[in-house]
């Protein structure tokens, strides 16, 4: 009888061991694989949903691709991939004729790498008289006019919007070409020429402008220095010669 009990206990123990080993070696890995497969399926479904949303957006954008191409063409005319000075000189001639001035001189200098604009630090305003304490209170009285002027300058500086910069525009792909122009005509016509120069097809930034009057004719000679800009084609090796 005792021997039978031992056999029964041994058989039960063996069955338990087989069941545990079967779970560890067979069922548990399969369950883990099933969970991983389900997680991967959910990930793929999420990615598919995102891709479908992107596809819808791309289809909507493609419908307006002609408008985008027209906009790009206009921007490329404003900031071309090369100096394109002959076309710009032609625009200047047309503009001079329109505003009834004579374009007497055009000088184009070597291109310069673009220098990103850095916002100036905010100016500190000197404390008012009542804010002084200790040794500062014993110092000489603060000039009220100077303090008011400093406060006005600080307020004016704060009112100026911060420059807009783009990390995609760098000294490696954006260059400025200095130009100098001289025009002759009536003072009002010279002014309208300068205004039109900054609103033409080509992006132009006027840096200086001065006039000198001719006593005999009553006309003025306007001298203008400015920059025109070039956004280099990333496939180009270097900027072509401006001369």
Q: How would you describe this structure to a colleague?
A:
By secondary structure, the chain is an alpha+beta fold. The protein is 50% helix and 18% strand. Among the domains are: 27-54; 80-114 and 169-242, Ribosomal protein S6/Translation elongation factor EF1B (Alpha-Beta Plaits, 2-Layer Sandwich), CATH 3.30.70.60. It is built from six helices and five strands. Strands 1, 2, 3, 4 and 5 form a five-stranded antiparallel β-sheet that branches. Strand 4 (204-213) and strand 5 form a beta hairpin. The radius of gyration is 38 Å and the shape is elongated. Keywords: Coiled coil, Membrane, Transmembrane, Transmembrane helix.
SSE topology sketch:
Layout: H1 2-63, H2 65-78, H3 85-98, E1 102-108, E2 112-113, H4 135-138, H5 144-159, E3 174-185, H6 187-197, E4 204-213, E5 220-231
Antiparallel strand pairs: 1-3, 2-3, 3-5, 4-5
Overall pLDDT confidence: 77
Distance between the amino and carboxyl termini: 115 Å
| Strand residues, percent | 15-25%
Shape: elongated
What's the CATH H-level homologous superfamily of the domain at 80-114 and 169-242?
Answer: Ribosomal protein S6/Translation elongation factor EF1B
The string of secondary-structure elements, in order, is: HHHEEHHEHEE
Largest sheet: 5 strands, antiparallel
Specify Rg, calculated over alpha carbons: 38 Å
CATH architecture annotation of the domain at 80-114 and 169-242: 2-Layer Sandwich
Keywords: Coiled coil, Membrane, Transmembrane, Transmembrane helix
Coiled coil: 34-78
Transmembrane segments: 6-25
Protein name: Tfp pilus assembly protein PilO
């Amino acid at each position: 009888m005792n021997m039978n009990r031992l056999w029964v206990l041994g058989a039960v123990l063996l069955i338990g061991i087989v069941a545990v080993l079967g779970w560890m070696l067979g069922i548990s890995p399969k369950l883990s694989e099933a969970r991983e497969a389900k997680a991967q399926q959910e990930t793929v479904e999420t990615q598919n949903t995102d891709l479908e949303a992107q596809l819808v957006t791309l289809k909507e954008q493609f419908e307006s691709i002609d408008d985008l191409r027209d906009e790009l063409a206009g921007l490329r005319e404003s900031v071309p991939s090369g100096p394109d000075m002959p076309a710009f000189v032609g625009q200047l001639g047309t503009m001079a004729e329109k505003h009834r001035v004579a374009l007497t001189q055009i000088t184009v200098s070597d291109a310069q790498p673009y220098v990103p604009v850095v916002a100036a630090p905010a100016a500190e305003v000197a404390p008012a008289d009542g804010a002084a304490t200790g040794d500062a209170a014993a110092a000489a009285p603060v000039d009220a006019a100077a303090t008011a002027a400093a406060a006005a300058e600080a307020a004016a500086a704060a009112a100026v919007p911060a420059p807009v910069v783009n990390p995609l525009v760098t000294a490696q792909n954006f260059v400025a070409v200095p130009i100098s122009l001289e025009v002759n005509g009536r003072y009002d016509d010279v002014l309208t020429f300068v205004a039109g120069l900054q609103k033409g097809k080509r992006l132009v930034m006027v840096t200086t402008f001065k006039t000198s009057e001719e006593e005999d004719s009553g006309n003025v000679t306007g001298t203008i220095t400015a920059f025109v800009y070039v956004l280099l084609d990333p496939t180009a090796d270097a900027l072509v010669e401006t001369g």
